[in-house]
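User: Can you predict the 3D structure of ArsR family transcriptional regulator, virulence genes transcriptional regulator? Sequence below.
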Amino acid sequence: MNISKETKTVERERQWRIYQLQAEICRTLSDPKRLLILNELREGERSVTELARELGLNQANVSQHLALLRQGGLVKSRKDGANIYYSLATPRIIEACDIVHQLLVEQLERNQALAQEILRQ
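Assistant: Sure. Here are the predicted structure tokens for ArsR family transcriptional regulator, virulence genes transcriptional regulator:
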């Protein structure tokens, strides 16, 4: 089957747009405090006050990070009286974070093994 050059160009442009959106998600995840918040939310929904207390962070700072996570589509919120509760928009975000975490651990282990090998020489 011969795919036309135009079809390939359209597909490449579509992929580029998807990669741009993926990069936006990665930028949203690029702050350790936001990763802490997401990790805490794996246990269930929390209010800003609960998150600030449990993570030892300033409440205003937690609110700012939650706003970015919500804008990025990674968390959702619901209002209950005067409180707003946040939860993961999808558990898949935790799966993605766990995969990146495991990649980092493996990389650190390889680098440590390499460093030890070099030091023995």
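Residues 1-29 form one domain. The CA atoms of residues 52 and 58 lie 6 Å apart.
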